[in-house]
């Protein structure tokens, strides 16, 4: 492997890092309150040089598989630079999908609004849920209705000198199932009973069907300087910026500190859920979680 890396190769390395990071991140753990995983550290980016595109792609795939195993093991997340998101045109800027002016019980928000769908252990993703996905980069998808809002959020942060990295967006049922089964296999092989393995696996990998990431409306967001998925992210500039500003773009900090008894998920300062701007502001200003807000609307 060459030691001298050209700019182009550096870009490739970064790209590979992002792809790896992105897929690793797509496993981001939405941890139930009972068992926090230890902080996830970012391993060093590997050098790649002199490979054809195809070979590189094959290597990337191989690499991603390794990372998948690694992350399922509670290992880590790869960090690198961010990718370009397409910002909406100027005249599209004021249009907010989902909630134009609606918030709270008296303002027209309703529990059957697409952006207020509740998914948790008690409310799995409906079998007939209609997906409206779009790619935001080579490997990550989100609900296309919120793509513009994601871009606005990232761009607004950038203007404040904050670099955001989306480490997890849409995650398919199959992928979630694979992750869960991998975890189960390892626990069963370690001699656990089926019941114990299921319970233990559910602490670190959300049970298939109950992850908000399966809607394409949730994002796990971190920053290059802090790639650990732990509560320490809340104290970073990015964590603080997101907490304060995400509602302006329709996102709520979905699993806040102190509401674990309602959400069933530990404090996740990196997990944001799109609910629409007015709803997000209402929920945040009134220190609610989505479960409480939906109940309020019922
Ligand atoms: Zn998440």
Features:
four-stranded antiparallel beta sheet; 298 residues; 7% strand; single chain; two-stranded antiparallel ribbon; Muramoyl-pentapeptide Carboxypeptidase, domain 2; disordered N terminus; binds zinc ion; alpha+beta
Folded structure, characterized:
Strand 1 and strand 2 form a beta hairpin. This protein has 9 helices and 6 strands, in the order H-H-E-E-H-E-H-H-E-H-E-H-E-H-H. The chain has 298 residues and is of the alpha+beta class. It has helices spanning 7-25, 53-72, 147-159, 173-189, 194-204, 237-245, 260-263, 277-285, 290-297, and strands at residues 133-135, 141-143, 165-168, 218-222, 251-253, 271-274. Helix 1 packs parallel to helix 2 (53-72) and helix 4 (173-189) crosses helix 5 (194-204). It has a single domain (2-37, 57-297), classed as Muramoyl-pentapeptide Carboxypeptidase, domain 2 (2-Layer Sandwich). The protein starts with 6 loop residues before the first helix and ends with a helix. The strands form 2 sheets. It has a 4-stranded antiparallel beta sheet with strand order 3-4-6-5. A two-stranded antiparallel ribbon has the order 1-2. The protein binds zinc ion. Zinc ion binds next to strand 4.
